[in-house]
Design goal:
By secondary structure, the protein is α+β, with helices and mostly antiparallel strands. The chain has one domain. Helices cover about 40% and strands about 35% of the residues. It is built from four helices and seven strands, in the order αββααβββαββ. It has a five-stranded mixed sheet, sandwiched between helices. A two-stranded antiparallel ribbon has the order 1-2. The longest helix has 28 residues. The chain is globular and about 60 Å long. About 15% of the residues are buried. The mean pLDDT is about 90.
C-alpha cells in the first residue's frame, strides 16, 4: 500500500474516532441532571461538574438541554442545537454552554466563536432585552471559557 493511501486511511480513522468520541461525550453530558442532592448521569462526569460550582447551574433541572434554535442570518436560514441553556427571567439573562472535546483549544477557536455568535444572534431575536453570554466547556480538562 502506498504511503499516501496509508496516510489518507489513517487520517480517516482518526476523524472517525474523534467524531464517535465527540458524539459519545455529548450523549453522556446530555444525560446529566443535578437537582439539589440528587445527581443523575455518568459518575465521573458528575464528580467533575460538582467540583466546579460555576458549572452546576448548567446541569440543574431548570436548565434546558439540546435546545433547537432556527432563524435567518444574513438572509440564510440556519437551524442549530444548543447543548445547554439557562434563561433567567428575573435577571434578564441567557447563558448558553457548548461542549467541545478538542484538546487543542486554539485550533478551532475562530470556528467556535462564530458558532456561538450565531447562537447569540438567533437568541437575541427571541430575547431582545436579555444579556446573552456564551461559554465553551472543554471536556478534556473541564475548563469553562466564556467567549461572548
Amino acid at each position: 500500500m502506498s504511503n499516501k493511501l496509508q496516510e489518507t486511511l489513517s487520517a480517516l480513522q482518526r476523524q472517525d474516532y474523534s467524531t464517535k468520541a465527540g458524539r459519545d461525550a455529548h450523549l453522556k453530558m446530555q444525560q446529566i441532571t443535578i437537582d439539589g442532592p440528587t445527581v443523575r448521569g455518568d459518575t465521573g462526569l458528575c464528580a467533575q461538574i460538582l467540583s466546579r460550582p460555576e458549572l452546576i447551574p448548567f446541569f440543574a433541572t431548570t436548565a434546558q438541554t439540546e435546545v433547537p434554535i432556527a432563524g435567518y442570518l444574513n438572509k440564510q436560514f440556519v437551524s442549530r442545537r444548543i447543548d445547554r441553556m439557562i434563561v433567567n427571567n428575573a435577571d434578564k439573562t441567557v447563558k448558553i454552554l457548548d461542549y467541545k472535546t478538542d484538546i487543542n483549544k486554539l485550533m478551532f477557536r475562530d470556528k467556535y466563536f462564530n458558532q456561538l455568535s450565531e447562537y447569540t444572534r438567533l437568541l437575541s431575536e427571541i430575547y431582545p432585552s436579555y444579556k446573552i453570554s456564551a461559554y465553551i466547556l472543554w471536556l478534556h480538562d473541564f475548563e469553562l471559557e466564556q467567549l461572548i
